[in-house]
Amino acid sequence: MQTLTGKNIFLRALEPEDLDFLYLLENDETIWEVSETQVPYSRYILREYLRNSHKDIYEVKQLRLAISGLDNTLLGFIDLFDFCPKNKRAGVGIVILDDQKRNRGVGTEALGLLMDYAFVHLGLHQLYANIAADNTASIRLFSNLGFEKAGVKKDWNFSGGHFRDELLFQKIKK
Q1: Measured between alpha carbons, how far is 46 from 39 in angstroms, rounded to an integer?
Q2: What DSSP string runs through 33-78?
Q3: Which DSSP helix (H) or strand (E) runs through 33?
Q4: Measuring CA to CA, which residue among 122, 123, 73 is closest to residue 97?
Q5: Coil, strand, or helix at residue 88?
Q6: Which CATH number applies to 9-172: 3.40.630.30, 3.90.226.10, 3.40.50.300, 3.40.50.2300?
Q7: β-strand partners of 151
Q8: Quick one: pLDDT at residue 102?
Q9: Between the CA of residue 65 and those of 32, 114, 159, what are the distances in Å?
Q10: Name one GO molecular function term (predicted).
Q11: Each residue of 20-50: pLDDT tens digit?
């Protein structure tokens, strides 16, 4: 069984051809709140990021994978960040770019594949996700895959002129 291949999608390393998609994603102001981005990214910076994306997770403490349909259509990205081998944990982030692919199982399958990879191949004990309290789709996604709400960070993010709560979800390997 291949860990990064599912029934309808597979997770793969980033490719130079992902530049245009990455450029649209990183410069989409509607998701800057989630990524804590405040300025646009140039194609040059993103090209350099792609050029270095092969570096080992143990070196750079993060891993971004492309979510691809079995027909090689790029559907989104899924990340491990704040990778901490000492404490055997990492954060998880996911974005599905096409509104028509959301709520159709792509995120569930991608997150399931990433969880298997993290727990089996990286030997992690836990994964966590930071989710805006009003992001019901993400709360449902992570909850359905066994993540449990561990806490509320009050007034954590400032967006749209006011503070918003952020929830911490954890999945601890049993």
Answers
A1: 13
A2: HHHT--SPPPHHHHHHHHHTTTS-HHHHS-EEEEEEETT--EEEEE
A3: helix 32-35
A4: 73
A5: coil
A6: 3.40.630.30
A7: 168
A8: 57
A9: 19, 9, 27
A10: acyltransferase activity, transferring groups other than amino-acyl groups
A11: 888 888 887 777 666 667 778 888 888 888 8
